[in-house]
UniProtKB/TrEMBL annotation:
Residues 84-104 are annotated as: Disordered. The lineage of its organism: Bacteria, Bacillati, Actinomycetota, Actinomycetes, Streptosporangiales. This is Uncharacterized protein.
Length: 121
């Protein structure tokens, strides 16, 4: 299984977000609007099913509403091995994150109002 590391998260929204690693709280950060924050080579967790997603994902949470905006995880499925993102939680197989969804290297995340993107570092 290839490891994907998130290096930086850029928040271009009008409100702040929390970046939460459900496997390792050492990567958790609050990211104010229009800021980029280093999240310390945060490995994207693997989740094979809905039960695993709860403790094996990255969450992007709106700091104003406490609503989860994005769930992010890695998974191999019949469509391939990808970093996946959803606004609803578990999806089978889950949509590959826009931008660089192939695992095995470093990425930066870009968070907008209703959009997320991963760019290869």
């Amino acid at each position: 299984m290839a490891i994907t590391g998130v290096q930086n998260v850029t928040n271009v929204r009008g409100s702040g977000v929390q970046f939460i690693n459900t496997e390792n709280s050492g990567n958790n950060r609050i990211i104010s609007p229009q800021q980029t924050v280093n999240v310390g080579n945060c490995w994207v967790p693997w989740a094979r099913n809905e039960n695993e997603l709860i403790g094996h994902s990255l969450l992007i949470i709106d700091t104003t509403t406490d609503q989860v905006l994005w769930y992010i995880w890695q998974r191999w499925a019949p469509d391939g091995d990808f970093v996946r993102a959803s606004q609803k939680g578990w999806e089978d197989p889950g949509t590959p994150i826009p931008g660089e969804s192939t695992p095995g290297h470093s990425i930066n995340l870009w968070i907008a109002e209703n959009e997320i993107r991963a760019d290869r570092v």
